[in-house]
Amino acid sequence: MEPRLLVYRLRTCTNLRQVKQVHSFLVASGVQENFGGAMVLKMVDMGLLEYAQQVFDEIRQPNVFVSNSLLSGLSWSGLKEKAVRCFVSIHRKDHLLNSFSFSPVLKACAAIPEVHAGKQIHALIVRMGFGSNVVVRTGLVDFYGKLRDMDSAECAFNEILWKDVVSYNALISGFSKNGRMEDARRVFDEMRERNVVTWNAMISGYMHNGKHMEGMEMFERMCVEGVEPSEVTLVTALSIAAKLGDLERGQRIKNFIDDIGFKMSMILSTAVMEMYVKCGSVGEARKIFDATSERDAVFWTTMIAGYTQNGQFDEAIMLFDQMKEEKVKPNEVTLVSVLSACARSGSADVGDELGTYLESEDMSSSVFVGSALVDMYAKTGKIVKARQMFDKITHRDVVSWNAMIGGLAMHGLFSDVVELFGQMRELAIEPNDVTFVGLLTACVHAGLVEMGCRIYDFMETDFGIIPQIEHCACIVDLFCRAGLVRDAYAFIRKMVLKPNAVIWGTLLSACRICNDVKLAEFAAKELMILEPNNSGNYVLLSNIYANAGRWDDAVRLRALMKEKGVQKNPAYSWIEVENVVHKFLVGDTSHPQSDEIYCALECLGLAIEESNEYMSLSR
User: Is the pTM of this model over 0.70?
Assistant: First the structure.
């Protein structure tokens, strides 16, 4: 076959079988040495990297372009160890190397990580005379930066004679990924020329290091200087707005995207939607969702999770049903979000259906989904089913154990909690702060004050876990339920953390039962600072005054509510019928079947009256 035809056949290969046919012909014809390089390049292009390496090893003198292509392919595809071994083989066989041969293998060494091999390659670079090359030196800056050795990274950078924007970017990226944003900013300010990658490194660096406002200001400066953003820039800026909960800034970024006519990809649309839901603007997020025709699982999940995070549980469940109807396969995050919606809304029937669906799809045994199922069953009152699901999880982590301990605690099963905690310790699963919230909650429900106090103490002394506000709230609740409001108040006064509204609210509620008006006034005063518009605090104190016969104070407090414009939140009842949750206010007529409901209530009322009359006559 003519060489020209062979090259054509090779170029038109689209699958492994065709490549093997051409390779077999080359070997049989004895011309593999002539066309081996072309074979390797084609295989690398098709992602057939291990096969490409086999062919490469059979070439006696491969040219440097082929060698570099294989090294890059192995390094970028995740076959890091093979990339390092391939480089070592190339060097030992004295095949040609150039300045582009080192960056792929240095990346592989950093990713494994293979520190010793990377440093040996550094020595080889110097020995071969590539030490002053900007491409090679930039690779070394990147290598040391990823190993968190920023002194060596900066040393490699300083030895570059003619620094370009890529080498500066590598050093900035290294500093930012290692939390040294002041140094990153110093290098940034030194630069005479910057590109969009430079700005992205700074913006994302600030975000990942928790300096969200600095990241937002850097993005705004970038826009003022007229630098055209990339998709990465915009996604990062939207993520910062979401973390800040700053809807105004997030909306400005969305308007900016529209003004410059930037194409809304799936990734960018997801970022906009996530910004809206994190800022509490779920309606705007839904507009983005509805306006997007092609929606992947991540896109659906963002909207479902947004509903759940904002307390719109019914909407989350309905959207999940729509997702299934459109044959989009949910991922684990989707399932956890829906399970959370079921748990928090008390939708037991929907939760059961979802649990059955997950078991049929063999998805319930994963630690992520399994833990969410345990939590959902526990919160919907099915603690036996929760335990069954827990036992099915193949590889349990601390989250799984916490979900089961928390569920048992919620149901007042203290002895089961203690037994499970003992099993957890036997298996060397290290408890965390959430574990101890579960243990303390169990003590609260069992009324074990002394035990709860002991657990609170050894949490820090034996396990080194510093008490958080949730642990303190449990202890206050423990004292209050036992009628020890003064002990609860003494504990609050000793707290290192500032008491929140939950803690003061617990104390205020207990003061009503214990008729401690003075302490109730103090707790209410703190609550009115923390929650000035929460009507429940005013009403509760007013009721305490009324119970104590202090009617003037009760009336004064009601007048204060009116003066401050504090509206009493209406209470409602709810019931789940055939997977639908129905909510009712007092005297509510908004339900489509309200006439039938009130008719049924009247019939029940009459039946009760007749029953009472019958009972009276029978006496």
Answer: yes
